[in-house]
Design a protein that fits this description.
This protein is 80% helix and 0% strand. It is mostly helical. Keywords: Coiled coil.
Length: 204
């Protein structure tokens, strides 16, 4: 009987040792799985943040693309308007040049107007004159008041008031240039006269 009890005791202790070893191994496995889960969770959080950032960037980029498309459409529209405006201005310039060319007709020419070719000749002579007796007639400078008033604009384009304003400013500049040229003409004439007197005095 004693032998049997000892055998039973050794058998029981062996099973207990095996059970403890199994429990320890199971705990180690569970701990390892828990650590892996924590690492995977951390990685998942990082990936989720990256996804949010990418989505935000894509949303901004999409908005920027839409904004760029709108800007391109607006610029294309403005370009088309400028092209149309350029055509209108070109046609008006052609009409203006035709109107100015009618000054070649003696019936419409007055004392204070001059033919365009004569005007160009006067300007050319003024820029490169060498003759001390050169005298420019200020009455040859064309008065633009009547010509600008006589121009009729039938277009309903809103840009015409701006164009008319620019033409009026150009008219004022021409008027000022006319007076300045007249004053300069008088000065040249006076200097020339004095120079001639000095030359004549030395010759005697």
């Amino acid at each position: 009987c004693l032998i049997n009890l000892n055998n039973m005791s050794s058998t029981t202790s062996g099973k207990t040792t095996d059970d403890v070893g199994s429990v320890v191994a199971l705990r180690v496995a569970l701990q390892t799985l828990a650590e892996r889960c924590e690492k995977l969770q951390s990685r998942l959080d990082v990936v989720e943040k990256e996804n949010v950032t990418i989505k935000s960037h894509c949303t901004c980029q999409t908005a920027n693309n839409k904004s760029s498309e709108v800007n391109v459409q607006e610029l294309s529209s403005k370009k088309q308007q400028l092209v149309e405006y350029l055509k209108i201005v070109t046609n008006e310039n052609r009409t203006l040049w035709t109107t100015l060319s009618t000054l070649d007709n003696p019936a419409v020419q007055s004392n204070d107007k001059i033919k365009p070719k004569n005007s160009l000749a006067i300007i050319d002579n003024y820029l490169k004159y060498n003759d001390v007796d050169f005298k420019m007639n200020s009455n040859c400078i064309m008065d633009t008041d009547d010509d600008l008033i006589s121009l009729q604009y039938s277009s309903d384009d809103e840009s015409w008031p701006m164009l008319l304003s620019e033409l009026n400013a150009y008219k004022e500049k021409l008027t000022l240039a006319k007076h300045l040229l007249a004053d300069q003409n008088d000065l040249i004439f006076n200097v020339t006269s004095r120079f001639n007197l000095l030359v004549e005095g030395k010759s005697y």
